[in-house]
Amino acid sequence: MSQFLTDLAPKETPWDTHRSNAQSVQMLYEYSEEFNKYAERINGCSGILKFGFGEDKLVLKQAFFCRVRFCPVCQWRRSLLWRAVMFQKLEEIKTQYPTHRWVFLTLTVRNCDLVDLRDTLKDMNASWKRMSETVAFKKGVAGFIRTTEVTRGKDGDMRAHPHYHALLLVKPSYFTKNYIKQSEWVEMWQKALTADYAPSVNVKTVKQFAEGQLDKAICETLKYSVKPDDLTLTRDSGAWLHEMTRQTFKMRFIATGGVLKGVLKPDDEITTDEMLTSSEEVEETDERRIAFQYHREHRRYAYAPRFNE
Ligand SMILES: [Zn+2]
Questions:
Q1: Measured in angstroms, how far is the CA atom of residue 243 from the centroid of ligand 1?
Q2: What ipTM is given for this predicted complex?
Q3: Ligand 1 centroid to 267 CA: how many Å?
Q4: What's the CATH fold of domain 98-258?
Q5: Which alpha helices (H) appear in the chain, and where do they start and end?
Q6: CATH 3.30.70: which residues of the chain?
Q7: How many whole angstroms from 45 Cα to the centroid of ligand 1?
Q8: Ligand 1 center to residue 22 CA distance, Å?
Q9: What is the pLDDT of residues 3-25, one digit of tens each?
């Protein structure tokens, strides 16, 4: 009788969830010869986890990560790292810019055919650049962190809904003489896109002293680029995932600018160690290691004493 990781450490449930999703994505990649190499890499992703003993929890010390862009485990580890780094840097930013505040912006464009996604994303990026160079933007916004999210378009099987989530660090004057109303954000984004329609824009001011709101905005900005349910859908035998993979090849899904330039590193610069700790701080433990192995048939991690150290 196997002993499962989550029996011993219920907090580690996300490991089962994300690794199980990875198994599904692997299967979808196996359907196409073009993507067999990704399937193989995901197959080898985080098969064995070795933990050290922290004060009151297990501390991940060793695992192999495949780094395939849409591997659900790797997506999750990157997101955890970005969030942790952002929460750490928040204090520094507050000290440096005590009177600045945060605005959470979501910018969308009309859904596109998935085969046009790459061009659409390039166009969005150029449009963002144009918008960020406008006088209104520069007057109010000191810096930004922007991520790209793509969901399945609800208007057809091979459609995409690309959008940006952005955290803007705004100057105090943003709330007085340099204020940008929601309708003005729509106008600015439409103009930057040179679109003949009014794009959907959501803007939320993060209330001062409401820490929960900022945490939520950070988590929303720094999550996956494609939600797990959209990746693992089996109905189309992976057709959407395959095209998505082609369209986004080597594209970066995170951007920073202004005074926040460089606060978060792009996906391809994140090291394996950082994916392990998902933090810039390393929690020390003694040398003992307790090992768990992923079991495909159970879609769960189980205790694997033969790998203990
Ligand atoms: Zn992976």
A1: 19
A2: 0.99
A3: 13
A4: Alpha-Beta Plaits (3.30.70)
A5: 5-8, 13-30, 36-43, 72-96, 117-132, 135-140, 182-193, 211-221, 228-232, 239-247, 272-277
A6: 98-258
A7: 5
A8: 7
A9: 999 999 999 999 999 999 999 99
